[in-house]
Amino acid sequence: MNANTDLTGAPLPPEDSNSANRTGAPKPNTTALFPTGSRRERPGALALTIGFGLVAVCLIGLFTSPSAAIGGAWCIGMMLVLLFLSVPVAIALTVPSIIGVYAVSGIPATMNILSTAPFSAVSDWSMSVLPMFIFMGMLLTQSGLSGKIYRVADHWFSWLPGGIGIGTTFAGAGLSAVTGSTIGMTYALGRAGIPEMLKAGYDRRMAVGTIMVSGMTGNLIPPSILMVVYAGIASVPVGPALMAGAVPGILLAVCFAAFIFAIGVIAPKLVGRGQNAQTATDTTDANTTRPTTTWRDRFTSLTGVWGFAVILVVLFGGMFSGIFTPTEAGAAAALCSLLLCLWEKRGEQPWRKVADSAMDTVAATSAIFFIMIGATMLTSLLAITGLAPILTGLITDLGLSRIGFLLVLIVLYIVMGMFFDTLSMMLLTIPILLPTLETMGVSPLWFGVFVVLLGEFAMVTPPVGIIPYIVHSIAKNPEVNLGATVTLRDIFISLLWFLPVVVIFLILMVAVPGMTEWLPDLISRTSGGMSG
């Protein structure tokens, strides 16, 4: 993987990264798997000195611990320190786990884990869907589908109050779901969507806020790479895990759209409607007005995304009908994406784009598999040291109800999201919390959706969530802001408008857990099962 990739290795649009460079804004480090894509700058000499001093303290504590459980706690502390030092996630999980197993159980147990964990972590047949989904996303990105999806959403929703923002929301959900790349989607959609909304008279804060939240649903709506990774960590079937996120992801996108529509009705000036409606930057003029969209334009725009519709039919129709298992559906969708890329890029060296997609897929899949191996070793450490049941006991002794426990987790994950990326939080907490979930009566499928959404929430949470800074960087480009000045204060104010929608939705998820399991149950009844 390289600096031009994000969570899944999906390439960032070169035109957007260039635009960020033209404005003098630093291009964020967006590699989030291997090496880890920290939202912080690389630590300086002082931070490294303190960090490695703490690692040494953890090692001393580990080898002098009076019990295995305390030794396990020292290992967890070492992992946290390494993650704060921006050590790759796979290494931060694996090295303390191996050292901890050696300290507690000696060489035989260590050799056993080293010989079995790498194979057992990634050898399950259902995990073969992961490279298929990643390859599909790479190919669709290379085929230029992002701009076409945005144009379709814009044309079909622009007539509503706040319609351009509504279209942007649905386009973002679709793009990040297909590509598996919230960061890449933000670059592409920000570059296209912010100027369009400003031309229509949107308040600059509405424009940037809409872009920031548009991709939050992408890692819930299938094909979701993070849900596949969660299935591997939590040992739940991949098919139901994928389907569990579909309904919440779509409902959250609808909630954002409804919020923008309500703003368009209550405060029309914020979305360029009503008398004297104008952007807060006072930059709209006759040269930046948007052309009128006709019904012919709307239907014509659909012709550009026919391939995307075919892929959706193959993916979901195959699973609903029982023709494909999720793994087979992923392979079929990847094949369709390959053919679509070859067709869309005919005459533009299409096989080179396929080769680039294949290489990026290998790199991203390898990165994820390395991390899953580290997570398996962490699980082994927790079992050997007996730390997991102790933590479960501590949580249950608090006497929290199911709802109280989940509300505490919401606060915990929001705080953790200020320091860690989504995958780091998942890998650190899921092995520890899984035994407790059963005690609290929390479905593993539901919890997967819950934790992935919280991770996406963390990516836009100030002060160190990466998405606000990416959007701020994009908005510095004069071609994007149309002469407006979008400050970091504007970015954070816009988040105060939109993030309460996410909090309310999380509480709704806690109150109505059935929304995550309805679709997996339906597909299981209609297709006779979808475990693979």
Structure description:
The protein has helices at residues 14-22, 45-63, 68-84, 89-122, 129-142, 145-157, 163-179, 182-199, 204-214, 225-234, 238-244, 246-266, 295-302, 306-321, 326-344, 350-385, 387-397, 402-416, 422-440, 444-459, 466-475, 478-481, 488-511, 514-527. 55% of the residues are buried. Helix 9 (204-214) crosses helix 23 and helix 18 (402-416) runs antiparallel to helix 23. The chain has 532 residues and is an all-alpha fold. The two termini are 28 Å apart. Mean pLDDT is 77; it is low at 1-40 and 275-287. It is 72% helix and 0% strand.
Quick rundown:
By secondary structure, the chain is mostly helical. It has helices at about 15-20, 45-65, 70-85, 90-120, 130-140, 145-155, 165-180, 180-200, 205-215, 225-235, 240-245, 245-265, 295-300, 305-320, 325-345, 350-385, 385-395, 400-415, 420-440, 445-460, 465-475, 480, 490-510, 515-525.
